[in-house]
Amino acid sequence: MNDKLTSKMTWLQIALVVAFCFLAAFFCQHNDGLYQQTIYQVNQVQNGKATKMTDEFQNVDHYHNQRFFGTITNGKYAGHHLSIKNAYSDSHAMDHQYTKGQKLFITLHTQPKLHATVKDIKRDAPIAFLLAIAISLLFVILKLRGVTVISSILINTILFWVAVKLDHNNNGAAVIWIFSVLAVVFCFVTLLLVMGWSKKMLVTLSAVLCATAATILITLIVFGLTNERGIYYESMQYVTQLPKPLFIAEVLIGVLGAVMDEATDIVASLATLKQERPELSSMAIFKSGRAIGKSIMGPLINVLFFIFMAETLAMTLLYLKNGNTWHYSFSMNMSLGMTSSLISGIGIVLTVILSSAFAGLWIKGDER
């Protein structure tokens, strides 16, 4: 597999990928003039002595004071030299350790004299570097089809931003309806750009929408029958609107991504199989789709489980380190992630059945 991949990549393509990535990072490292926020470059750091701290649960941490010297790189005070104090802990739970060469966003204070406090680290250079690598690899491996993938990502990002703005303007009153419409548009745009307008695309679209709708319906029925026992919405921190509709919207988008990936693989495989063996009956196609689904839904469910649970790992460990029980730590941090994983698993299983059934009914031997 790797030999076939590298054989398609010429040395010129590899060189262009590397050059594009470094140019993107170089541009972001020297684009301070484009920012309205004041940027400060650290030229020298002086670290003080560490102070040991132990809490009532015998958790040990060390606190450090540091002073760094540097230069403002943009705005009215560009070129001015400043020294800034900073305190940080080894755990870095609520603070940062700054090092020589970093660029920081700062807030300037002019009274009684010019001084500053640090707001955050300027991170656009490494982000741009990683983004450039991803885009370059898409073009190198997929050639012009990489354009459709990138286009779908950009369009979906804009659509998601519009949905969030609409939800914000409506104070969360119609969050489920907004994200339901968004899910349909997401699915249609992505499949249209990736698969093109074809019967395969329509079969995949039908399977994805039906599986997603059925999954959400089952979720709401189960929530109603169980009175949502064991669902701790209070773990959704800083939420300023009703948490249940927002959680359903989150699950809706999460399920959509999982089932779309699975349905695309199954329908594309069955379309190729039907094209090569047009004599296969609808039942044979259905059984083949189930066989394909069995081989991919296990790893897919596990991937979603790991993603949902990994997001909560840090807070769970923090709860445990502060004397909370496993039950309480799990309930307050991992219960919603586990619930999302189970709901996504239901959607993945339904997608196997629906994708196989729709493909068997609608895809003909001459369908490309």
TrEMBL record:
Keywords, A to Z, come to: Membrane, Transmembrane, Transmembrane helix
Residues spanning the membrane: 125-142, 147-164, 176-195, 202-226, 300-320, 340-363
Q: Does the keyword Transmembrane apply?
A: yes
Q: Which Pfam families match?
A: YibE_F
- Return the protein name: Membrane protein
